[in-house]
Amino acid sequence: MTLAFGINGANVTHNLPFSQACENNKGPILDKLANIFSAPGLVLEIGTGTGQHAVHFAGHLPHLTWQPSDHPQNYQLCLPRIRQAGLANLYQPRQLDVRQSDWDLPDTVDGVYSANTAHIMSWPEVERMFEGVAGIVSPGSAFCLYGPFRYDGQHTSASNLNFDQHLRSQNPSMGIRDMIDLIALADRCQLSLDEDIEMPANNRMTVWRRQS
Ligand SMILES: C[S@@+](CC[C@H](N)C(=O)[O-])C[C@H]1O[C@@H](n2cnc3c(N)ncnc32)[C@H](O)[C@@H]1O
What is the pLDDT of residue 10? Predict the structure, then answer.
């Protein structure tokens, strides 16, 4: 993991950490989450970053309770935005490094969401994320993992290829993950790929569900 790079493109705007990518993608992602997380429950977000997604989704999906979390070195980033939002269904962020053996979550988790994390985490961290998710969700519950992915070694666009090369030049442990590897990993964790949805800007919304 490269935490110096951790918040991809984040700047500070109006005294709040801000990502233009989050601003662009939060609407299309919300449209999908409204269907996937249609039942009331607690959703854990892994790698919350600036908190723009957390505030937007909690504000528009009041039947959910949203639990942001991030690596201990980054979890404060979303604090001011979450405090400012003052939403009753948006919890204070928790410190969560997916490598922790105990994720130390207080409530039953009904679903998990994570955006743009799999290509920033090292592969062993991605493995820990899937193993950890599988350990906290019940059968049928969804794990929504958003971001760019490869298929059979192929990128879905030239811009994703450039992005992947940029990531790997910054740190060889980062890089756009291949769905073949993710599906094999998920299978070892009793998770199955339920949906793989095309999203704007060459991203995907992948939905993994815990097998019974
Ligand atoms: C590119 S940012 C994405 C932030 C936000 N989800 C978004 O879409 O803009 C990657 C995030 O992954 C988090 N992250 C990296 N390694 C992690 C780890 N081992 N455990 C938990 N979060 C991690 C970083 O702290 C950062 O918030």
Answer: 61
